[in-house]
């Protein structure tokens, strides 16, 4: 079994994370519970940020908070010198509540409302990533009404799609995000933006995919963008101060995954951008990237108690846990794969293969298929690894199941950073049916 970060087996033969026995964590905070290895988050953040510093390249490493947003997480990102990527008024509100420096907030999204743009301008976010012509006009209108200038990036689709070890060259006109680089949309948007006195067009943004284990896609995207930038330099006298190559850096969920180090991504991106800037006789832009999953994904572990079993002779053994698609919907959404151990006896030899079922009333609520485990008993403790990204952030109240708490562990200390929802929380916004008017 491959353990991430500070995870290890302690002297009690229990799984330990951040110096904390997971059996004791389950007793203290209940289950299900998300446990985050803070030291690993810090290590990942420094792997990206310090490489830029060591190579002397101006940069911003923005945490893509959609992966996991909470006040404590945003404060941790600030401690590590990161910038912040938000995609909604709610994520921006969380960042403001965490007192994150607004000048390091980048506001993304393909359908920002007028109210969200007004909120961003009111608080003075550092940059708005403009996604389409409609937003360009709306932002111009909001700026005029508020008599406020703002900085923007233009999001483009460069014709590169990347996932794991594969990359595809496409026209990519059929995307809900960004201005297409090949069909003239991006150039038209740039002309419109630089002619608008209310907008300062810092540069170009792209995002090519997720769970990317190679640098090839980023290099190809940079090449496509610089080809256009060279034309825009001649025809529009425009050079970007910033080139944002997005995120999508992969993590290891199972043995099938083989990610590379954060420093490797950064080194090769820097090398390519330097080469391209030199070959096109352009100034070296500031490089921005947006890691999300790669900062928090493998730092998160969800602890469950095991419950009922269903044994189908010659077919399958089902083992149910006290959570499921309400706290991790990724397996149901797109067949995401995970590894797990019995945290209270991780060294015991596997005796059977079971499939981990959630407790939701939905046949698709299966967390892991065909997991080798020791013979599991009721109220064993199952630890599912790498649930730190898109677990809590996509959690839901299906079947009116309260969302689990979030606990940060570091150096032998545990801190509750998100409380467990109560049944009272579930009905807090509910209103009763009005009584009928009596005759």
Automatic annotation (TrEMBL):
Domain Orn/DAP/Arg decarboxylase 2 C-terminal span(s) in chain numbering: 34-388
Pfam family, one: Orn_DAP_Arg_deC
Requisite cofactors: pyridoxal 5'-phosphate
Any GO MF annotation of the entry: pyridoxal phosphate binding
InterPro entries membership: Ala_racemase/Decarboxylase_C (IPR009006), DAP_deCOOHase_LysA (IPR002986), De-COase2_C (IPR022643), De-COase2_CS (IPR022657), De-COase2_N (IPR022644), De-COase2_pyr-phos_BS (IPR022653), Orn/DAP/Arg_de-COase (IPR000183), PLP-binding_barrel (IPR029066)
Protein's name in the database: Diaminopimelate decarboxylase
BP-aspect Gene Ontology terms: lysine biosynthetic process via diaminopimelate
